[in-house]
Specification:
- The complex is a heterodimer of chains A (about 55) and B (about 350).
- Chain A is mostly helical and about 55 residues long.
- Chain A has a domain at about 10-45.
- Chain A has one helix spanning about 10-45.
- Chain A is rod-shaped and about 55 Å long.
- Chain B has one domain (about 15-345).
- Chain B has 13 helices and 2 strands; from the N terminus they run H-H-H-H-H-H-H-E-E-H-H-H-H-H-H.
- In chain B, about 75% of the residues lie in helices and about 0% in strands.
- Chain B has about 350 residues and is mainly alpha-helical.
- The chains are: A mainly alpha (about 55), B mainly alpha (about 350).
- The interface between A and B is large, with 32 and 43 residues.
- Chain A: Keywords: Membrane, Transmembrane, Transmembrane helix.
Chain lengths: ~55, ~350
Amino acid sequence: MAGLEIPTWDPETALLIGAILLEAFVLYVGYGGLERLVGPSLMRLVVGGDASAR
Amino acid sequence: MLGSLLSGAGFLGTSPEMLALFVGFGLVVGVLFGFFGMGGSFLVTPALLMLEYPAPVAVGSGMAFVFGTAVIATLKHHDLGQVDYKLGAIMITGTTIGIEVGRASVYYLESMGLAGGVISVAYVVLLGGVGAMVTRDALKSDGEGGIDHEATDRDLDEYEIPEIAEKIQRTVRIPPMVTLRGDVRVSAWVITAVAFATGVLSGFLGVGGGFIRMPAMIYAIGVPVPVAVGTDLFEIVFSGGLGSYLYGQGGGVNLGIVAPLLFGSALGARVGSAATAVVDADEIKVYFGGMLLVGSVAVGIGEVGSYLGNATLELLGLVLVIGAAVVVAFGVLYAAITSLRVTRRRRTSTAD
């Protein structure tokens, strides 16, 4: 039966959660750069012409 | 049964077909999360349960996905000055204990062989309840589900505190009292109680709990909407991180599921949040409520299929869950593109 437990240090699990955290940071920065790079051309393609509606 | 049809050799123990499915589903979930500010994450766990992942893996991976998504969203809200770190820090204590209680319940039920069934039933009730509430609100058009997009543009001082929150602030005055952003003064115990209740839900279902915590912060604590959104996400970073760690220790976090989901959702969230600038949320909210109701029925069908060992019913449940999310996500994109085209046409004709 599982009960309440205090988290104990587990390097393997910490590495797993660290990998998810790192992926999140990389994706935030990466997609942000991608948005600036191809965003305007993509909007022109989808909407047609100058789409600076915002 | 269904899971074995889709399994095979691939990246991190996940087959290429499943990786593509997870990236695509992540994209859809991201669009919904970015646009509505809630609701994306609690489609992931039922979908994983229907794919026959064990309950701790479905809940643990769902929670790790929520953690990654919250990190990305918090970075954005921090830039907008919409995070109350004091409120977040107090909530972390209550949520942490709540998550541990919820997580222990999952493992206890798993040891009795009941976890999958009980979690699915809880999802049917929760998705159905929230879906009915959002649909009712959308039909009444007074917009209380998800983020009020117009509200996020106002100053924090301009927000009226809901009547019920004022009543709680007047009656529950157990010290210590704390002052929050937007000049809100409330007992730390109210904050802790809200945090504990939503923490139990998070730990039990593997969801961020934002769809309960956000309204709770607005109506029980009385913080302005943008601060509730930003602080909720900040809090999920910690609670989701701790929950993922605890589930990870028990082998409940599968990186082969979380990594592709996050890869898709990070892109989808950018598209969804950009769409909020051009689409009126009330136009779409009724479909969002409908999606939750369909999701509730789908989880029920999937669970009956699993109980009867009927692969067709299991597949139908999965198709309904993913299909409903896909339809609403495409609805958001269609409405955004249509709105941009109309604006462009108006500008062109004005210039002429």
